[in-house]
Amino acid sequence: MPAWKNITLNIPHEDLDQISESISTINSILAITIIDKLSDRQSEWYDDNDKNRNHNGSNYYIRLLVPGLTNADKLIDDIIKITNLLKIELVSEEIFEDRDWIKHSKNQFKEIKISNQIRIIPPWIIENDFEGKTVIIDPGSGFGTGSHPTTQLCIKWIESHLRKNVSVLDYGCGSGILSIVAKTFGSGYTLGIDNDQQAIENAERNKNINSSKIELIHSNNYNHKKNFDIVIANILSNTIISLKDRLINSLQPSGKLILSGILNNQSSKVINHFYPDINLSIAEESEDWVLLYGDT
Description:
By secondary structure, the protein is an alpha/beta fold. 28% of the residues lie in helices and 29% in strands. It has helices at residues 16-23, 72-83, 101-108, 149-161, 177-184, 197-209, 237-242, 244-249, 267-274; strands at 3-10, 31-36, 60-67, 89-97, 112-113, 118-121, 133-136, 168-171, 190-194, 215-218, 228-234, 251-263, 281-286, 289-295. A 7-stranded mixed sheet has the order 10-9-8-11-12-14-13, sandwiched between helices. A 4-stranded antiparallel sheet has the order 2-3-1-4, covered by helices on one side. Strands 5-6-7 form a 3-stranded mixed sheet, covered by helices on one side. Helix 4 runs parallel beside helix 5 (177-184). The chain is globular and about 65 Å long. Mean pLDDT is 88; it is low at 45-51.
């Protein structure tokens, strides 16, 4: 099989979106990806659907997929000519063999056992020897498969605290996993909201796979009222802060607010921002992530 190469470049202080558009005409470049310079654990880019995010080269690398025989120095010279940049730093070159990518992606997503009571599996897992509840999630475009600690924190909270027939709002639902889990544990009216139409479409597929009676809508179509017993938001801390009024206004007078997607060192900022409207505290932790809980 033919070999391919990932070439990762460092271009500080430059607009990488603009550069990506400029160099997309170079024939040898098959794909362009912008990646965070921070590690997965440190990054605040987790599940962020903000289309207006500025991809500045001081915070991100640009990664180019090219044929394996591509000369990196020659490619950098071509990019410099097109963009009029003075300097581009080569961070790394990674050569890899072609493979059956569908099979490879399936091998990366296997059963995720959250507890003895709940597991997450992809549609191609057929083993049925698990005695607890099973939720099937098609990973689609990567809108949440249950592998991230914050998703697991939310699932465990639902397992331990959700009462039958309570209404649930899953704000920033992604793949729909938390909405579907809530319904699996007996929630009443359950609504999933996201600002990404592709995420909504992925969630609709997962809803149908699980025969789950949840509703899914785009955030632009949400008319928030105080009508949910539980509101869950598993998104970035800055996004959660910006949604404070919307989240609180969606709660019943005796409602419960569950927030995750928050690093431990960000928890005080979120807690202080919501106070005194709602008194939040750390309910659970996993690795460097926390789940905040508060009630009205």
